[in-house]
Design brief:
By secondary structure, the chain is mostly helical. The protein is built from 2 helices and no strands. The longest helix is centred in the C-terminal third of the chain and has 45 residues.
Length: 76
């Protein structure tokens, strides 16, 4: 799987979690649900955003490394 594919899957996974959470919040409206949101889901969204940003920065570097490695292998 490419980094782009992984990025898409990660983003789609977060969207799925957010949709499920929004549905759950319609019926679960107590202090525990608010704590769950604050303790787990908000940090998860921030971590996924950081991971997606890292993937965006890493993808071109990895692509360049792969091109350079395949070019150097041809020269052997």
């Amino acid at each position: 799987m490419s980094l782009t594919g992984a990025s898409i899957e990660l983003n789609n996974g977060l969207k799925t979690v957010r949709l499920a959470w929004e549905e759950t919040r319609l019926v679960w409206k107590d202090a525990v649900s608010r704590d769950f949101d604050t303790s787990y889901l908000i940090p998860l969204a921030a971590q996924v955003a950081s991971a997606l940003q890292a993937i965006d920065h890493l993808a071109p570097v990895l692509a360049r490394a792969l091109r350079e490695c395949s070019t150097s292998e041809r020269g052997l």
